[in-house]
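TA notes, week 10

Several of you asked for a full example with nothing omitted. So below is the full record: structure tokens for the whole chain, then the designed sequence directly under it. When grading your own attempts, check the secondary structure regions first.
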């Protein structure tokens, strides 16, 4: 900074005026964003599956329990889940014989189910908030994390997601969490290990009423 200040000291009035004009122009311009072409869901899936996330797209809200059951069956998991009390999760008609507990999660819980603020096509990231209705423990303690959202919650860029979060979250929100794939590390002998610092599986379910399920 001292070198810059020294250089500016030798500017003529016209040079300084031009410098200030260019500085103001740059500060006022929009920061460049990565190009995200095509359908947002396709870009999201490309980035998300690259970091070993799994997903399912359903065409109806009523198909959510079946999609969750498919995930549980694939990994031989019990129909026991912990989740929060968000308005969206309460609209889902879960089977009567499932064990659904609405509380904070603990390390012995196998599967958690949450909704999300949005999904970011640019990076394949899911943005979730911890609030009085959903605990951050749901995102980190169970070995399996299922996230459910509408396909309309996809946004193009990270800064779009942050703007959306600032609009939606109240002063009671405890924080936002950006999740890109299941937890993994290669700290030990450069061998990938899943579940080191959070869930070993991350499964996203999108409801897209405009198209057939895939």
């Amino acid at each position: 900074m001292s070198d810059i200040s020294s250089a500016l000291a030798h500017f003529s009035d016209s040079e300084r005026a031009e410098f200030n004009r260019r500085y103001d122009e740059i500060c006022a311009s929009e920061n460049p964003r990565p190009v995200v072409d095509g359908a947002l869901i396709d870009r999201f899936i490309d980035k998300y599956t690259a970091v070993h996330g799994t997903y399912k797209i359903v065409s109806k809200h009523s198909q959510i329990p079946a999609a969750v059951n498919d995930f549980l069956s694939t990994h031989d998991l019990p129909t026991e889940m912990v989740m929060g009390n968000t308005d969206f999760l309460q609209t889902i008609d879960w089977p009567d014989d499932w064990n659904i507990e609405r509380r904070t999660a603990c390390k012995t819980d196998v599967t958690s189910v949450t909704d999300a603020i949005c999904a970011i096509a640019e990076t394949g990231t899911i943005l979730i908030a911890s609030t009085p209705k959903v605990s951050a423990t749901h995102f980190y303690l169970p070995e399996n994390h299922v996230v459910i959202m509408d396909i309309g919650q996809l946004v193009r860029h990270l800064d779009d997601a942050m703007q959306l979060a600032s609009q939606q979250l109240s002063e009671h929100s405890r924080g936002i969490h950006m999740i890109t794939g299941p937890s993994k590390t290669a700290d030990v002998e450069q061998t990938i290990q899943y579940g080191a610092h959070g869930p070993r599986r991350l499964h996203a379910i999108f409801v897209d009423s405009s198209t057939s399920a895939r």
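The radius of gyration is 22 Å. Use that as a sanity check on your answer.
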